[in-house]
Amino acid sequence: KILKIVMRLKQVLTADHLRGLKNHKYNAKGTSISEVFMQPFWRWLVNQVPLWVAPNLLTFSGLLVNIVTSLAVILYDMNGMGNSPGWVYLICGIGLFAYQALDGIDGKQARRTGTNNQLGELFDHGCDAISTFLVAVAGASAAGLNEYPYLMLTFVVLMELINYIYHWQTYVSGCLYFKKVDCTEAQFCHIGIMITVFIFGTEIWKELMPGFGLPLKYFLFGGVVLPTVINFISASIVILTQGKGKNGSTVADTSVLSPIIPASILILLTIYYAINSPNKMLDNEAMTFLVAMVGPFIKFTIYMMIAGMCKMPMPLFDSIMLGPLIIVGNTFLGCIIPEYYLLLGVTFYLIYDLIAFCVVIINQVCNYLEVSCFTIPYPSITSPKTTPTN
Hints:
By secondary structure, the protein is mostly helical. Helices cover 66% and strands 1% of the residues. The chain contains 15 helices and two strands.
């Protein structure tokens, strides 16, 4: 019944958008360092998978493992102080490795089974957007960053911005650019952090770095800031010089700077609430705070992917921003609604909104391309094809 209600929601993609998606061709450049070494393992692994297993099912299975193991960290450590048991961090690292492995072979499985299409690319990168947020939040817990709350908030926001900027340059240039140090390397760093915490505990990050006199957690933080700056500079060059639309605009013929608007709104709302929360929710309910205030980046990142593939303008405002806006408005009015309950309500709303959005998109694309998301072979469609309209 819930699924039927979701399917009745407003359709996201118009007929023109779906035609643009069908005409989309995958275009990517570059290979990261670790992928070269992982390819033999991925080639072996994909040969163990039966041919009847759909590529998207592999990706989704890995994401589910990633979600469950990351949620274990989050639920054990709601204040972000690194209080989860060591074994929880270990299974989180294992869960991410499982996701990385299955994500690494989904494309190979698609080519083996002759089922590679635009849905697979969209589904793969959409799952990556969700996983990136989970990795950021679980990593902040493992590092015990809430000892310095604003440091933890900056850490998670920067992780989301890296992914956002990554797809921003694709939206402008029409090409995916893989760096030498990319997503796979970041995942291995995260796995290493989880194993380290399992062995030594989160107290290890309070140890001082010899010769510097600073806690190790500052160097963990620097490990996020440095690639963010490098990627931002690299992406800025692409964004400002390689627009594929009219007069150097995006692939949708919109301003290359337009994605700044939703990102800036979300960041400003988050900063305002972090500073002005009467009950210091960032300190006391860090995980709920991060999901409610930073989580909307997931949907906008997915929107960016869709916009690039469909050649459609990226929305600059969306329903998922209502939660942060209501939270900030409530704070401005003196917390008419108790902070904790409002934050919790917004978190559940965000989860619902994101799931509903993904279900509607997948359903529209499957119907238009006449494919099934999770099964092989694709069923034959005998009824006339109808195109969902906005």
